[in-house]
Amino acid sequence: MRRVVWFGTVAVLLPVVAYAFADHLFVVTSNGMAGNSAAVQLQSPWSATPNVRPVGAHPFVRHFSGLHYVVSGTPADDLRILDPTTFEPVRVISFDGGSNPQDVLVVGGTAFVSFFDRTTLERFDLASGVRIATVDLAAFADSDGLPEGRSMIRDGNHLFVQLERFDRSPVPQPQLPGLLAVVDIATNQLVDADPTAPGTQAIALTGILPRLPMQIEGRRLYVPMPGDFYDQSGGIEAVDLDALNSLGFAFVEKQIGAAQMSAFHFVSPERGYFVHHTDFTQSSHLVSFSRTTSTFLMEHFVSFGLVERLAFDPETGAIFFPDNDPTTYGIRVFDAATGTQLTASPIAVGLPPADVAIARSSATDSPPGARLRVWTAPNPTNGPVMLFWESPAGSRIRWMLVDARGRLVRSLSNEARFWDGRDAGGSPVPAGVYYLRATGDARARASTRIHVVR
Fold first, then answer.
1. Distances (CA, A) of 396 to 31, 389, 392
2. Residues 169-182 pLDDT 10s
3. Burial bucket for residue 354 (CB in 10 Å: 0-12, 13-18, 19+)
4. Can you say how many angstroms the Cα of residue 61 is from the centroid of all Cα atoms in its chain?
5. For 50, 143, 256, 420, which has the most beta carbons within 10 A of its beta carbon?
6. 3-state class of 358 per DSSP?
7. What is the C-alpha to C-alpha distance for residues 435 and 295, in angstroms, rounded to an integer?
8. DSSP codes, 32-63
9. Mapping DSSP to helix (H, G, I), strand (E, B) and coil, where does residue 217 land?
10. Which CATH superfamily hosts domain 373-452?
């Protein structure tokens, strides 16, 4: 079997190779000079297929609409869209040399791309690869003339873009404040986060150096803020998605035992994980913390690499840790409920892992402008679970819980944030697989699977 792949306007016939597992952790890897990628099974024994597709030497990966999107920084300066079943390129979009792209976010048939060494955020048509809009961020630049765009996240019709503002001349140093630019997806225009001030304002953050993946929970956006080198001035900052302002630090580095904050993920209403770096050696520590008391719980692993990414799979309850230790690199898997390492040794993925994204064949995207995504934690569960969703601003969610045969088990209120593990009659449901179905405004629908264990 062969398929047609388009590179610009040139069609090339390539053989199609089907890999052993459709659902997988997609890993981009790099040794600093060359990049590649790998696929890892999402469940034990976590079989891996290394070196499935070369990428740039400084890669970041996202997964949208059933495709992998790999942004490669300088010197590659491109976006590679890969088929997750064959890992063949569907399209490659090249940028100007030295622009150093950092992140991609897909909206319908278009993609926004942020750049570290360019003053603009740019939007591309994915069918043609043509740039269709440019958002000027130059007003937010520091004295080196660049705002240093980093990670992005979407909430309804708003796109949030981190501006690191790391002044590189004459002496490299971070600039206060770190900023979040807000972009209206419908108009490709900046949103004024503070109408009382002159000009168009971004969201001013309490901390500095925003550059790492963010997380939305309810109507709060959580931003990891590494702070300056090892002075414990950072943490996880909360932003009000409706008021478009910072609420300050929800978790402070010193309280939760961090030397310098890196990647984080909330895995339940009570528990979160983060990675932090120490000042004595280049080391990365995987730590759990209590969300209710904002305190350190336990250190679970130490890598002598610089790890700045995590992935959490709610369906299996696993944390995937891309360990890039120079001597023992690979993917490590941890039980999110306990922090126990589930892999006896790192899963080999070829080169050292740089970034990770979870891909599931059952995942679907809602129509543009009506995006809805739901998930639960902990999962599996033997008791209550917390309900999470991403939806257009102001959208009300209607919930139904059905069993594996599609029979209604219970309806939940529009404002529900928990399911207590009981049916409509108040009895604990038996062990098994259940589906939580959500319907939002504009007919947006989504569902997620819950594994109940007794």
1. 46, 11, 9
2. 877 777 888 999 99
3. buried
4. 9
5. 256
6. strand
7. 33
8. SS-EEEEEEESSTT--EE---S-B-SSEEEEE
9. strand
10. Macroglobulin (MG2) domain (2.60.40.1930)
Q: CA–CA separation, 230 vs 210, rounded Å?
A: 15
**Cis preceding-peptide flag for 170 (omega within 30 of 0):** yes
Distances (CA, A) of 254 to 209, 224, 231, 249, 259: 17, 14, 9, 11, 7
Q: Which of 116, 128, 134, 26 is nearest to 77 (CA)?
A: 116
Write down the pTM of the prediction: 0.78
Residue 140 has pLDDT above 60, yes or no: yes
CB 224 within 8 A of CB 214: yes
Residue 201, token pair as written in the block: 């304002």
d(CA 50, CA 5): 22
Task: Please tell me the least confidently modeled range out of 32-46, 68-82, 428-442.
Answer: 428-442
268 token code pair: 């339940």
The Cα–Cα gap between 391 and 398 comes to: 12
Nearest alpha carbon to residue 89 among 168, 8, 186: 8
How big is the chain, counted in residues?
454
What are residue 225's DSSP bridge partners? Answer: 235
Cis peptide before 75 (omega within 30 of 0): yes
Express each pLDDT in 71-101 by its tens digit: 999 999 999 999 888 898 989 999 999 999 9
The helix/strand/coil state of 432 is strand
**Could you tell me which of 67, 60, 146 has the C-alpha nearest to residue 102?**
60
Beta carbons of 37 and 374 less than 8 angstroms apart? no
User: What is the rounded distance in angstroms from the CA atom of residue 245 to the CA atom of residue 1?
Assistant: 53
Token digits for 371?
């995006």
Grouping H, G, I as helix, E, B as strand and the rest as coil, residue 29 is strand
Could you tell me if 170 and 182 are in contact, meaning their C-beta atoms sit under 8 angstroms apart? no
Decide which of 3.10.50.40, 1.20.1290.10, 2.130.10.10, 3.40.50.1240 is the CATH code for 2-359.
2.130.10.10
Structure tokens at 265: 């993920």
CA distance 237 to 208: 10
| DSSP letter assigned to residue 28 | E
Q: Would you list the domain boundaries of the chain?
A: 2-359, 373-452
**Rounded Cα distance, 447 and 140, in Å:** 39
